[in-house]
Design brief:
65 residues; 55% helix; mainly alpha; TetR family transcriptional regulator
């Protein structure tokens, strides 16, 4: 039986991606992320980013909650 994914699954995935990238960057400050395009250019990540920008009134910032 397949479990039903919650409606905020995209938000959870975006948070997981942001957290993983943040931990990697903090663990290795000299690390360069050359291949982020495939991770950022996903419809769920772009949708979550759009919702955050809209919620912020178009301003930057407003990290993970």
């Amino acid at each position: 039986m397949n479990a039903v994914q919650p409606a905020n699954d995209a938000k959870a995935k975006a948070q997981q991606l942001q957290q993983a990238l943040s931990l990697e960057a903090k663990g290795n400050p000299r690390r360069r992320f050359h291949a982020l395009y495939d991770k950022v250019y996903r419809s769920d990540i772009l949708w979550e980013a759009w919702k955050r920008v809209k919620g912020n009134g178009g301003s930057g910032g407003g990290g993970m909650e």
